[in-house]
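Input (Protein SCAI):
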Amino acid sequence: MHCFYPGDLYAFTRKPLFIVVDSDNSPVFANMPHYFGQPLVVLMSAQDIPPQFHDQHHRGNLFTLFLHSPLMGMCLVSSLCDVPMNLWEKCQTLVDRFISEASRLVTRGRNVDPSFLQFFGDDFLRLLTL
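Output:
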């Protein structure tokens, strides 16, 4: 009764729409229809998480952590809690380089869904996508 469903958003698909769904109910958004032919991107959290992270769910979802800081997400899933600042900065430089290269590949790719390219002009949405 208190869940959010794709049908609640159909009216908003008249314009390009970018949705981030971080919920146990995210799979219901997998086949959201394009009634109006506008670009639609739905980033969804995984339905299942590894058992060792079930007790940490109250601190937030892994999907949100990876969207916010991919490097911090990698440290968490690798059980790295204490990273020296100089190593963190080197790793962050690698992440930034990866994002730049991935952005270049996506914009030049032939098999990229045009919906993603529609949102690449927005810095925030491009960063979330990459």
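Residues 49 and 119 are 28 Å apart (CA to CA).
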